[in-house]
Design brief:
By secondary structure, this protein is mainly α. The protein contains 19 helices and no strands. Helices cover 77% and strands 0% of the residues.
Length: 406
């Protein structure tokens, strides 16, 4: 190795690992770990190609050197990475000042130099497997080895736990992902409360992927309780879940709580508008006109708040236009059915007011999304309605008609 002959060093390390006279010698594995680590971090293709998994072997060899360095031979068979009970015993030995070692240099070298260096190498390997190769199971294993080595050196790397959690989720190792996210939640990992609340959402997504909806909802509710002022995404999760489950009233209640804590969130007001829209449909089917009117007021108020907060919210403008359009149509039909001339005229005037409010909203939606055919059709019908009394609408009608024909 000192002469830069890595291939030769590997050959002799492999022989020593198989030779009965050296295979139980701690130095064999100490030096072999150095050789395979050098192969794993080399930039030279000829050296990198000497072994397909050099870092994993370096990891195994260093750990073997650790256990073979105990003076008491009864500990030479500890499997400290794969067996929890052996890991516990190993930790007890390391923490006992009376534990004796064959060579104290090995302990110092591994804990202070080799393990930290190998840990970094595994992080780099895991990132490549996660980002470039999309080999998520391998990435999880690499991050796990890095984390293990960090802990042996006396450090708890929360960033590594987070990487491990993400890789486990992608690899569909759901139990491992849950354990990692729960550990991060206990340690309050994250730069701020928004990120710490996000851990509950990540945990919920793992449960959803493993088809455990009950635990997913439980995790989100815990997050909402833990971070009442930083739970927008958690609220969205609950609202969407209850909407899909057909529990509109529960979704409605959560949405009102969300707006109470974050009143300037345009998305929440838009979502509230869509819930009121659903109520309009329900009340129309039940033939409850008073409740239809109440729901329309609620929906229009929510959409108006959404566009006030976010003036380029195309969907909110369109939905608001639709509320006023349908409201205008109902008032017009009521006017047709009314026998009293004065009442009929009043209803027709109210209808026209709603239609014009609708027109203003659709014009804004059209300005934001000129290609949307639904908006163009509605504007065309509205301009047609008013062009008999106002010639200025004729040009607008022709414009919309032309756009539909294009």
């Amino acid at each position: 190795m000192k002469d830069g002959k890595t291939a030769e060093a590997k050959k002799y390390c492999d022989k020593a690992a198989e030779n009965p006279s050296t295979m139980e010698w701690y130095k064999t594995w100490w030096f072999s770990g150095d050789v395979y680590y050098a192969i794993g971090v080399s930039k030279e293709e000829s050296v990198k190609n000497l072994d397909p998994e050099p870092l994993s072997k370096a990891f195994d060899y260093y750990l073997k050197a650790m256990v073979l360095n105990f003076k008491d031979e009864q500990y030479h068979n500890l499997d400290i990475f794969n067996k929890p009970e052996d890991m516990i015993r190993f930790g007890q030995l390391m923490g006992d000042k009376n534990t004796s070692y064959i060579d104290n240099r090995v302990l110092t070298d591994l804990l202070l130099s080799k393990f930290p260096n190998l840990s970094v190498a595994f992080v780099n390997k895991g990132r490549d497997e996660y980002n470039e190769k999309q080999e998520y199971k391998n990435a999880f294993e690499s991050f796990g080895r890095s984390l293990f080595l960090s802990q042996l050196s006396g450090k708890i790397d929360t960033v590594l736990i987070y990487y491990s959690a993400m890789a486990a989720h992608k690899a569909e190792l759901f139990d491992e992902a849950v354990m990692s996210y729960e550990a991060l939640i206990r340690m309050k990992y994250g730069d701020d409360d928004n990120k710490r609340a996000g851990l509950y959402l990540n945990l919920a997504n793992v449960y959803m992927a493993s088809e455990d909806t009950a635990k997913a909802i439980e995790a989100v509710k815990k997050g909402v309780e833990a971070y009442p002022n930083n739970n927008d995404e958690l609220m969205v999760f609950l609202i969407n879940y209850y909407l899909k489950a057909g529990k509109e009233q529960v979704a409605f209640d959560y949405l009102n709580k969300a707006i109470e804590s974050t009143p300037d969130n345009a998305s929440f007001h838009f979502a509230l508008g869509t819930l009121w829209d659903k109520k309009i449909e329900i009340y129309q089917n039940e033939k409850q006109p008073d409740k239809v009117r109440e729901a329309r007021i609620g929906a229009s108020g929510a959409y108006e708040k959404a566009v006030a907060l976010k003036s380029d919210h195309t969907d909110a403008w369109y939905n608001l236009g639709a509320i006023y359009y349908n409201w205008g149509k109902d008032l017009f039909d009521m006017g047709d059915a009314e026998k009293d001339d004065a009442k009929r005229k009043a209803l027709k005037d109210q209808s026209n007011e709603k239609y014009k409010e609708s027109m203003n909203c659709f014009e804004k939606a059209h300005e934001l999304d000129p290609a949307d055919k639904s908006t163009i059709k509605l504007l065309k019908s509205l301009y047609y309605r008013f062009m008999a009394d106002d010639e200025s609408y004729k040009a607008k009608y022709d414009e919309m008609k032309k756009k539909l024909e294009e």
